[in-house]
Amino acid sequence: MEKWSLMTLTVLLALTVRWAVSLGSYSGAGKPPMYGDYEAQRHWQEITYNLPIRQWYFNTSDNNLLYWGLDYPPLTAYHSFVCAYIAKLINPDWVALHTSRGYESQPHKLFMRTTVFVADLLVYIPAVILYCFSLKETSAKKKASTCALCILLYPGLILIDHGHFQYPLSLGLALWAVLCLSHDWDLLGSVAFCLALNYKQMELYHSLPFFCYLLGKCFKKGLKGKGLVLLAKLAGTVLLSFAACWLPFGTDVEQIMQVLRRLFPIDRGFTDCLFISFQDKVANIWCSLSVLIKIKNVISPRTQLKLSFAVTFLSLLPACIKLTVQPSLRGFKFALVSCALSFFLFSFQVHEKSILLVSVPVCLVINEIPFMATWFLLVSTFSLLPLLLRDGLLLPYAVTTPAFLAACLASFSILEKTSAEDLQLKAFSLSLKGYMAWFKSFPRIVRSLFLLSLALMGALSVLSAAAPPPQHLPDLFPVAVAVVSCLHFLLFLLYFNVVILWDSKNRGQKKIS
């Protein structure tokens, strides 16, 4: 009973924080003509409820794709339809075709916020709770509740979902997939991940680790026996899952192609980042480099696309090979982090919110590397600062970020977990025998860098919020936030790859047979 009491208090606290953040502003509030992501979600409800399925992704007189046209997979559209059906019962004006554009009212805001709250409560939060209870490393169930507390208080996801406005369903479904795989329920895990991918195509960030881990399990079992059977079952499960999600569109090839064109608009992808006037600051390598090097003036857009693909592929290749050759649940979780971070840093179509696709897998290893996980999650939240300031979410950011740091300090004593062994770098340090003297001072160096990082992020946060930029450099602070965050992420990518490649013990893993 005690473990459930602690977990209940944890969930209540997490829900209270979410409710408090939802009372504030949201993306695009009172900012016509496009408003923001809040209006995008409302508009999708309007479109899916009033138009036949065959028109959802096509440009028509009733569906102007230039005004928040649907650009997510079918499950997002189906979810919008369910929300619209409920909204119609409450107030038909909320989803009236054409006339509801830009609709804003307190009752409607309450309804929209409630839909996010319910999605969180039904999908994301239960997955976090069950995952924390399933951790082999949690010797005491009290540790499960503290781990859940830190994950559920991660400010980046709270501020984007309940502040900016976004649904946590794809990340929640991906968490369910990880949870299923941790119990060897490979087919259920495959279904859950297919659902996540069919809700948001950005779940492709996580697709390679899922593929490599399951393929590695098949290899280990032997492709002439149980492994071949498992591979066939997995392939059938994936095909059936996708067929079920795309069934309403499967009768017409042109329908499928149009949906795919909306999901992957390559022509507006990588070059957008280079041609925009830094209205959206993304902490990836290309946008950061464009501050110093005008890549668009050096190479063609097509070459840029090829370069982006090559760098992304090469950066995630080591982790994927290691996971395929030596599949383990621990390696799988770290590969989710590494591969998602490679996609974020080097791929051609990136939004600042995509860092959440890295942050959620980092949450899954917070019990193993609490110091580095906490550091990364703080930086990821900081990288969202320009977006949060535009949405009027400075106060929630200023409250939730220190609160999260305090929770991690209290739960894991992170400043005491900076040794090479605590950071999962013992095997790496042993391979550098000639530099062991340097590793003796490693904990002190890491703590100093962490404190310096916090000071830098704090100073830039204050300057971004309170100080006017120089007239000749109006984007100085947002660009500084993006570049500083990008440098952090590059170092984190190196760190996670070192942990993956030098890990030969696969501690706490069940043998795959």
TrEMBL record:
Pathway field = Protein modification; protein glycosylation
Which PANTHER family does this UniProt record tie to the protein?
A: DOLICHYL GLYCOSYLTRANSFERASE, DOLICHYL PYROPHOSPHATE MAN9GLCNAC2 ALPHA-1,3-GLUCOSYLTRANSFERASE
Instruction: Describe its function.
Output: Dolichyl pyrophosphate Man9GlcNAc2 alpha-1,3-glucosyltransferase that operates in the biosynthetic pathway of dolichol-linked oligosaccharides, the glycan precursors employed in protein asparagine (N)-glycosylation. The assembly of dolichol-linked oligosaccharides begins on the cytosolic side of the endoplasmic reticulum membrane and finishes in its lumen. The sequential addition of sugars to dolichol pyrophosphate produces dolichol-linked oligosaccharides containing fourteen sugars, including two GlcNAcs, nine mannoses and three glucoses.
Give the residue spans that cross the bilayer: 110-133, 145-167, 173-197, 227-249, 331-348, 355-382, 394-415, 449-467, 479-502
Signal peptide positions are: 1-24
| Family matches, as Pfam families | Alg6_Alg8
Question: What EC number(s) does this enzyme carry?
Answer: 2.4.1.-
Name where it's found. Answer: Endoplasmic reticulum membrane
MF-aspect GO terms: dolichyl pyrophosphate Man9GlcNAc2 alpha-1,3-glucosyltransferase activity
Q: What is this protein called?
A: Alpha-1,3-glucosyltransferase
